[in-house]
């Protein structure tokens, strides 16, 4: 695969068969744990996971987070600019079109005056859809494509970071028809807080005989094209944050593009009905003067102090020149609503790039699992574990316990307790299995669980009635031919039985 002109070896593992095909060929779950030794206490290697459910979460305007919602018929003869602005450059507008009356249909972000805008233009009369940027006194079309538009249809504008995408739904679901990042970024940087603050959701008609009738308008934060990188929200001691039988997890919300187009979110999972996954928060990062979608992290809750510690990975401005772990502590309830996180770099005991942080206080010592990466071009990465002294804060005097440098496509680090024992879990895309380590980073075996496409993270959740769920994802892409790699994946739910 090539991305931004570079060959990305990180996807060599995606050449494997799909999860369904793998299960069919094997006659059962893939991977194997170590056999139980006589007299050995039952533990994580005695768990055997089976696929329970697989589904896709997809939304342009994030459900429950609408900033504009006009269900009544709307007739417009010009562009209407709302008084609502996105908190970060991850936003969408959905329009249900009843009639365009020979006009162009416009949707995007507009200044309140006669200033700049970033928008998509749907022209049924010319059968063209374009991406347009106005900066200063100049208006430029930065991308254009011929698209058949007829009758009633739905049209959408979406921005993820600086990538703008036009989508249509002719009755079979949303399909991107044109997308552009570099042409937009050359003219305006939507990541700049001052620039974005001057732009508002806008939509309507343009042309000498302008007039459109819309049966529904929605605008708000961009939802997701898929989900990946699940991590259980937890207390410092590793117990999951569960309320009313709802487990809270963070996921990376796949955007309409590569890693920079993704952002971070919080979701609840009904432990009695794992098909019920609902987004409850959007989390963005403000750093280095920009609004970014850093993701692939973890949230630790301290209910006594009312504080939340967030760890993220700096994928929001990834350019193949390094990734690092960031952190922040806040009293804002980041498990609900929309938030901008002010983060700083976490001083991990490594000179290499790092991501996928997992933090837990075990025996009064903070342990931080993470991924070390000596190269991102091509990608080369492996699991590592650090810990601090007893009684110290999570960011004090961390020392490296160990790293498995024999692996080169292994990420998704998770600290997990099973039957009173602590383990570091990871996911090896080369061997297509989930290695398990003890807290000295000694390999102890592999999880007995299906291994599908991509590098699925092995997040376990203990069920109140006994047993475990494993929440992970696959590499199924959304509209890769137009959007490129990054729009994955399906959510996979597995359940355990003792081996």
Structure description:
The chain has 499 residues and is mostly beta strands. It has 2 domains: 331 residues, Tachylectin-2, Chain A (5 Propeller); 163 residues, Sandwich (Jelly Rolls). 4% of the residues lie in helices and 52% in strands. The strands form 8 sheets. Strands 4, 5, 6, 8, 13, 14, 15 and 17 form an 8-stranded antiparallel sheet that branches. β22 and β23 form a beta hairpin. About 7% of the residues have low confidence.
Number of helices: 4
Structural class by sheet pairing and helices: mainly beta
Q: Which radius of gyration do the C-alpha atoms yield? A: 23 Å
The outline comes out as elongated
Q: Main sheet, how many strands, which sense, barrel?
A: 8 strands, antiparallel
Helix content: under 10%
Number of strands: 40
- Number of structural domains: 2
Low-confidence stretches: 4-40
CATH topology tier name of the largest domain: Tachylectin-2, Chain A
Terminal CA distance? 39 Å
Chain-wise SSE layout:
Elements: E1 2-3, E2 6-7, H1 19-26, E3 47-55, E4 59-61, E5 68-70, E6 74-76, E7 79-81, E8 90-99, E9 104-111, E10 117-123, E11 128-135, E12 138-146, E13 153-160, E14 163-169, E15 175-180, H2 182-185, H3 193-197, E16 199-206, E17 212-224, E18 227-232, E19 234-235, E20 242-243, E21 246-253, E22 263-270, E23 273-287, E24 290-292, E25 295-302, E26 307-313, E27 325-330, E28 337-342, E29 344-345, E30 353-362, E31 365-376, E32 379-387, E33 399-403, E34 410-418, E35 421-428, E36 435-437, E37 443-446, E38 459-462, E39 468-473, H4 480-483, E40 491-498
């Amino acid at each position: 695969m090539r991305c931004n002109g570079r060959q990305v070896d990180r996807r060599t593992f995606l050449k494997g068969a799909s999860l369904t095909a793998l299960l069919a060929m094997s006659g059962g779950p893939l991977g194997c744990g170590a056999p139980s030794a006589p007299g050995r206490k039952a533990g994580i290697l005695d768990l055997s996971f089976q696929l329970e459910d697989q589904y896709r979460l997809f939304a342009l305007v994030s459900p429950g987070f609408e900033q504009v919602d006009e269900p009544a018929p709307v007739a417009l003869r010009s562009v209407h600019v709302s008084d609502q602005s996105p908190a970060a450059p991850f936003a969408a507008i959905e329009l249900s079109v009843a009639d365009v009356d020979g006009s162009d249909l416009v949707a995007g972000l507009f200044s309140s005056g006669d200033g700049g805008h970033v928008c998509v233009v749907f022209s049924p009369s010319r059968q063209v859809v374009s991406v347009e940027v106005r900066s200063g006194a100049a208006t430029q079309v930065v991308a254009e494509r011929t698209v058949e538009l007829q009758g009633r249809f739905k049209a959408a504008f979406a921005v993820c970071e600086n990538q703008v995408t036009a989508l249509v739904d002719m009755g079979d679901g949303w399909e991107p028809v044109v997308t552009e990042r570099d042409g937009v970024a050359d003219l305006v940087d939507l990541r700049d807080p001052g620039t974005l603050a001057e732009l508002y959701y806008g939509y309507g008609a343009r042309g000498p005989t302008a007039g459109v009738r819309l049966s529904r308008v929605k605008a708000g934060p961009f939802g997701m094209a898929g989900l990946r990188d699940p991590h259980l929200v937890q207390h410092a001691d590793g117990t999951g944050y569960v309320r009313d039988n709802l487990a809270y997890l963070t996921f990376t919300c796949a955007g309409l593009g590569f890693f920079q187009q993704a952002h971070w979110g919080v979701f609840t999972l009904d432990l009695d009905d794992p098909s019920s996954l609902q987004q409850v928060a959007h989390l963005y990062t403000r750093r280095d003067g920009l609004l970014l979608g850093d993701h692939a992290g973890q949230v630790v809750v301290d209910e006594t102090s009312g504080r939340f510690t967030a760890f993220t990975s700096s994928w929001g401005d990834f350019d193949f020149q390094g990734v690092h772990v960031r952190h922040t502590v806040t009293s804002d309830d980041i498990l609900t609503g929309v938030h901008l996180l002010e983060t700083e770099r976490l001083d991990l005991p490594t000179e290499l790039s790092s991501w996928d942080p997992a933090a837990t206080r075990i025996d009064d010592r903070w342990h931080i699992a993470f991924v070390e990466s000596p190269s991102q071009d091509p990608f080369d990465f492996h699991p590592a574990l650090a810990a601090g002294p007893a009684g110290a804060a999570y960011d004090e005097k961390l020392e490296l316990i160990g790293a498995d440098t024999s692996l080169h496509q292994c990420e998704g680090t998770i600290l997990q307790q099973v039957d009173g024992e602590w383990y570091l879990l990871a996911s090896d895309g080369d061997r297509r299995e989930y290695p398990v380590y003890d807290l000295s980073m000694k390999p102890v075996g592999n999880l007995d669980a299906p291994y599908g496409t991509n590098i699925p993270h092995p997040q376990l959740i203990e069920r109140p009635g006994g047993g475990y769920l494993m929440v992970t994802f696959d590499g199924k892409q959304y509209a890769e031919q137009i959007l490129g790699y990054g729009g994955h994946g399906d959510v996979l739910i597995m359940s355990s039985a003792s081996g």
